[in-house]
Structures are given as structure tokens and as C-alpha cells.
Amino acid sequence: MDNTDRNLIDAHCQGSKTAFAELVRRYGEGLFGYLIRMSGNRDQAEDLVQETFKRVHEKAHTFRGTQLKSWLFTIATRVAIDSLRKRKRIRLVSLNQQADCADGTCEQLETLAVADNSCEPSQEVVLTEQKEQVRQAIESLPARQRATLVLAYYQELSYHEVAEVLGCSIGTVKAQMSRALRTLAQRLPDIAGDIK
Amino acid sequence: MNRHLTEKELIEYQFELVSDSRAKKAAEHLKECSQCREHLQQLNRKLASLDLLREKITVSNEWLTKVAEQAGQPVQRRIIPFRKSAWLSAAAAVLVVGLLLLFVSNLPKEREEKPEFAKETPSLLAPYGARRDSGQESRGVAGDIKLEEKMDVTAAGDLDKSAAETKAFAFAFPEEKAGVGGGLKRAGGRAITEGEIPEQPPFAPASAIELVTLPRRENVQLTIYNSADLTLVRERRNLTLKKGWNWLQFMWANTLIDPTSLVLEPLEQKDKVRIEQLVFPARLRELGRWLIRSEISGQVPFEITYFTSGLSWRAFYMGTLAKDEKTMRLEGYVRVDNNSGDDYENAQTRVIVGQVHLLDQIAELAKRQYPYNRPIIEGLGEPGGTPGGDVGLRAPTEAPAAVVLGDLEMALERKEIKKEGLSEYFLYTIEGTETIPDKWGKRLLSFEVNDILVKSLYKYDEERWGTETIRFVAFTNDEKHNLGQTPIPNGDVKIYSQADDLGYLSYVGGTGIKYIPVNEEVELNLGPARLVTVEPKLMDFKTENYLFDSKGNISGWDEVQTWQIEVTNTRTLAIEIEITRGFGTAYWQMKFDQKDISFEKYDVTHARFKLNLEPRNKRTFEYTVRTYQGEREQALTELMRKGVTK
Prior knowledge:
The complex is a heterodimer. Chain A is mainly alpha-helical. Chain A has helices spanning 3-13, 17-39, 42-59, 68-89, 121-139, 143-154, 159-166, 170-187. Helix content of chain A is 67%, strand content 0%. In chain A, helix 2 (17-39) crosses helix 4. Residues 89-118 of chain A have low confidence and may be disordered. Chain B starts with 6 loop residues before the first helix and ends with a helix. Chain B contains 12 helices and 28 strands. Chain B is of the alpha+beta class. In chain B, the strands form 6 sheets. In chain B, strands 3, 4, 6, 9, 12, 13, 14 and 15 form an 8-stranded mixed sheet that branches. A 6-stranded mixed sheet of chain B has the order 21-18-17-24-27-26. Chain B has a 5-stranded mixed sheet with strand order 16-11-10-19-20, with no helix packed on it. At the A-B interface, helix 2, helix 3, helix 4, helix 5 and helix 8 of A face helix 1, helix 3, helix 4 and strand 5 of B.
């Protein structure tokens, strides 16, 4: 573990306000990226980051591990999965979401839908459509598989780190990853030559 | 390895999910097997699309600071010491009370009247009643957990209520945070049986997770008021409600929707579904949440009505003159442009001709940061509807009468535009539905009429157009001209004529027309005509009939002018031409004796000649006009009084 991280946690436990702010500054963006891919919704991801750091703030004194990053992602994963479970019961669909998302499972992933200004308008439309398909495919995965995929593929954590975050064995992580990729292979669009 | 690799094996090989030995075997097989290599490439292409979402996601330092501050805020906790003895006493007291009540209910009347029992009962109930009055302790641990959640909601700034109210609310609705009914609940300290809806509504949810599902639009109707950059949108959506309280979120980010105009109404089950409030959460921009009370569970169709800006329409026309220029084919179009920020799919589109009066410009309202001024977090209870607080029910917006929605039509099929009169303006309904994405424009055929009788006319009037002859095409908006069903909205007209038998067109001219009511004649000014010329020449000028005053000064006289007008038609068609001449005075007298040329006094200072001219022909005529100057004006008045002249 990074000594600075340990020092920050210790300082926070001793009542330092700036230490916690530094932790948020250091890991907030990474967690936000993870949670926005998990939830598919920027507003919700903001709430989840807030909830994650709230729990970190309260439970910092219980941290005994060696990897702060893994611990943070573990908490974020729990928060995200709890949220996903709730959302299965009561789902939010905004009126201005895309028509294809009427089943409520695919809120706008606003941050990821930033238009590429270098594209022609027609290409931009195609690109947006493809992103939407990818996002829907990821959202269709079960929560654990989605978490595995996002952590390993997008957050670029090693399988060992993913196992630590999810609290399971590396074998389980690999099995989840394999299942997720096989599902995605069926659902993702074939964009041969389109990716730059 | 003799067999081909499965998809699972290929994926696990590619993503290093297998052991080294299995990876080595797979690699060896791939070297030999082109089919598996191709399969792997295909998988890679598909999975490469995951990279589309690999964009860098950034957040601002301000937001991170805010997260740190809010996470660091101490949570207001209610610590209830769990003292075994107290809880056992309470449980015992409840048990005793229950037994006593049971006993009392089974007692004969005479036993009930016993004074000692009546005195005894309150003393047994006292501990329980005291706890209820003093706080929420008697509700137990579960009740306090809910209380904590509710207090978190308040801390997030989502509610515009005092702490005391919040507590009361938390007490009243320990399970209402999910926003739906059902389950055993407590309301105002009263036990609620399953299926009963609490009377007091829940607060707005703190996060988006707790909102109710809303499916896609069933249909949408646009009524575009062009004159005011105003469009009425009516959407129908089938909303699945649960019995109890439901929250429904509406977002208008990046659109020009006027949030103050939002109206939600159930189309069915109106006696069982009630829209209670529309709230605008303080922290959240560009969204509103409706609170719906439903006595039923299931799907209910709703209509959402609001005004937006950015949708516009304009009419334009194309006229094609027949070769003889006696008839014209007229096509009217409506072009609808969508810059509202929202896509409207399969929308029934109606356009309004006429002026409407607006207090505010919708675009300005839509651009406001918050629907009702800027939220003030600390100063609760601001007048005029504080954001974050309840706005209450809105009266339904007055809107033009609805038209029965037509069936969906194929987009490429030509649409009929139905027209109907409203009180002060006119409504055109485009048949079927149209999909108009944001930033797109769409041209729709409004009407198409053949063989409209037209009159080609040339006009010459130096005071209006100088020395050029102007060409006009005139027709009347009536049944005789195959028109007259509706007024014609203002717009640009382009006139073409058939150049040859093959149907090639030549551009004749264009102009803008104003709103043409039914039975009104319209003249389309097509601009200067070079093939028809008019050339006036002053042939003679003299003055006479002088009058003198007592001092010998001239006080009146007549001017006599003789003009020769030469009209040349170099076209291959016969023409009709109007020549208007002005005299600069109301006291004039014309001498004109050409029988085949009509002459009329057009107005008090002008005369008008009308003549027809054969193709490639020239015609010359003369007139003499006498104008009366000074005191000679009286002489003309006297002549007219005596009926000598007209």
C-alpha cells in the first residue's frame, strides 16, 4: 500500500479534514468513472460516489487491508449493486431518454455520449448509436458480471485486484469475465473498421 | 488439438482467462487453423466496440470538494439505548394492556361500571402513552432507521420543510420513501392496514433511484404557433402505477421546454388517480417530479402537456402556369423545422395561422436556470413558489380543440393537410404522423390544385413602379377557382411557366403573399416585364382661361396636356394591360374618345386605361387632360354641379 494512502487514512481517523478531502480528490474521479459505467446514469453515479465516500468516512477506522484502492472499489461495488437491486424494483426513466430505452434499463449515459467533434454529423449519429448499443449490452449483464467487466476492462484492474474488490477467488473472476464476454459477443454490434 | 476452438475457448485465450498450458495449446491450434483465426478476428471486432465507452471521464475539483464536505458531515443519529429491562417492561405492559382490553370487552355491563377498574386502566396505559407523546422511542429500532434516512434526505437539501415537520413526517411514513403504497404502514401514529393509502403524501425522493417507471411515448401531437415561437406538445404515455404514492420524473435538459407549462393528466381512471403536486427539487436542475396518488395498481394512460420553443413552420407555394397562361397549377407546402432540442417521433403535426398573445417568450422561460427563480437553500418559504417546494396543482393549459389522431402513415406517403377554423386563428392538421428529429426540417405538401383560372395582367403606374411594366397573375380564393375551402397562409410564391411540350419549366417570378381569406382576390406581383413596354409622350401643353383678382394678379387658370401612350407587346401571347395616370390634383377633366379602350376615373387624382393587345403588336392612343388651377377649381365644381361633366 502506498504510504501516503495509509497516512491519509490515519490522519482522517485522527480528525484531519484535509486528509479526507485529499482521498476524495485522489480516487473520486476513478470511482466516478467506475460507477457511471455501472449505473449508466450520471446523476445516479454522483449519488453513488457520494454514498461510497460517506461510507468510507464512517468506516475508515475499520480499514485494515493493504490496498486502499481495492477497498474503495469494494465499497463502491456494494453501493452500486445495492442500487441496482433497488432499481430493479423501482426504475427511473426520464421522459427525454431515447425512445429505444423505454424499458427503463438504459438511462442516458451522458458523459459517455459526448459527441466527437471531429466526426461528420452522419458519422456522429452512427457513433452515438453504436455507443448506445454497447451501453445497453453492458447494462444487460448481471450485476456481478458487469462489475467484473468494468473493473477489469475499463478500470484496468488486474484479475487479482478484481478478486480482492469483489471478495472472491481469481477463478471466479475469470469465470465471470468469460461469461460476460460471451454474452457481449452475442449482443455487441459488429463495427469492423469503425473504431479509430 | 483436432477439433476447432469454441467461442468460449477463443475468448478465454484472447483475454488470458486460461492457464498457460491451455493458452499454449490454443495458440498452436490457431497457427494451423485459418477458420479459428477468422472466428477469433470476428470476435475481436465485436468486442472491440467496448472501446467506444472507454472515454476519459472527468469531474471538476469543485464537485470533489463538495463530495468530501458532504461525506464528512456528521449524520444526525438518534441513539436509543437498548436497555433490556426497559424493553421487557414495555413488552409486559403491552401484554397486560392487551389482556385487560380483552377482558373488558368480554365483561358484562355491570362489571364495566365498576369504578376501580376504570381508574386502574389509565394507570396501566400511562407508560405507553407517555412514550408516544415524548417522541418516537416507542416505535422501536426499525422506526428510527427510517427516521435517519428521512433526516438524510433533509440534509441533502431536497426538502423545503422545517426539522420538526420532517420528524413528524418520518414518523408518519416510515416506509414511504419508496414512494409506493402497500405493506403495513403508520400514518400520524395510526396503524394503516394493508392496501390503505396514507393520507399525507411523501416528500420528494432524495435520489433518482426512487422514481417510478415511465414508458416511451405512445403518441405525440405538436401544435405549432408560428407567430409566437410557441408549440403545444401533447404526449400520451401509458404509465404503470402502484397503489399508493408514485413519483414521476420529467427532465428537460438541453431542450427549450417551458417548465412552468407542464401539465399531467390521467386519461382514464380519473376518479382513482390524482395528480397531487409538481415539485422542482432544489439541487437538481432541469427536472420536475410529479406526485401521483393512485388507488389502483396497473397501467394508466396519461397525457403530458407543455409548451416548447424552437419548432417553427412556414408556408410556401409553387405555381405553374399553363402554356396559354389562362390556368395555373398551385402546390402549397408547409416546412416544419425542429430546433427545440428534442426529437419528436411519429408526431401528429398541426400548425396555427394567426397571432397569439403571450406574456413571456417560451424560449426565455426555458433558458432559466430554475423554473421558479433561483433556489434559496437557507431562506425557506420564499414567496411565489420556492424551488424545492411544492408548486401544487396547475390548471390545465388552454389549448385548441384536440383532433382525433390519425393512423400512422408511411413517412414517404404524401400527407393531406386538414384545415379547420378556430375562433381567431386557423388550424392546419397534417394527415398521419411525422418524425421530426432535432435540428431537422421537413417539407410537407399542404395542397395541390390544378386548373386554377388565372388572369395574367400587366400594369403600368409611374408613381408606383417607375417606367417599368409589372406583371401580375391574379386569382380568387373561391370555389370557382378550385380553391376557397380555407384561407391561404402567408408565404413565398414562385411562379413557373411551361416552356415547351416536354414539361420543362421556366421561372417567371416570385413574390410573398399575405394571408388570403376565402373569397378574396389575390394578385401575385411577378416583377418587371421586359417584353411589354409602355411609353408616354407629352405631345402638347398649353394654359388658358386665366382669372385675375382685383389687383390684376392671376388667380386661376387651366392647363391642357395632350399625351400619347405607346404600348408594345413583343410576347407571343395576347395581353391585358392597365395603365394608370396621375394628375396631381383632384380638379381635372379628361377628353378621350377611343372606343375600344376602356377608361375610368380610378380615384380622385388618377385615371386608368385598360386595353388588350394582340401578340407582337403595338398600339398608340392619345388623351387630353385639362387641370383646373387656382380659382378655376370653382369653375369645375360649378360644371359638375350642373351636370355638364362627370
